[in-house]
Amino acid sequence: MQGKIEFVDKSKSGKSWRVKIGGKYYGANFDSQIDTAKGKTIDFTSESDPKFGDWIKSWAYASPGTTLQTPVAAEQGGEQSVLTDAEMRFISNVVGQAILAKTLMDPTLIGLWAKAARQTLREL
Fold this sequence. Notes:
Blueprint: E1 2-10, E2 17-21, E3 24-28, E4 41-49, E5 53-61, H1 85-100, H2 110-123
Antiparallel strand pairs: 1-2, 1-4, 2-3, 4-5
């Protein structure tokens, strides 16, 4: 997912960060260093914990020029389609160049980048 960090502060217990992204609150570990990204747009993955709520697993700064995105329809139960070889090469090139430029350094975000590249390709 992608969003702008609106708020970062210590949780009530003082053992983690409380982060507000797009009007929704998430928890994050202190060692995530997410407090350094306050006011910035990030790509992130999260998971829901029954005891602690939504929790940010990993994050990275969003690439310059990217816009906030909503999940792709296929993730929301929409129809899935088969990608052509040319589409796959485009997506692979986008992700590969992001890795080479050291913009994408967290392996858990590769899927987010690939989905964003696919969405961009479909919008062209």
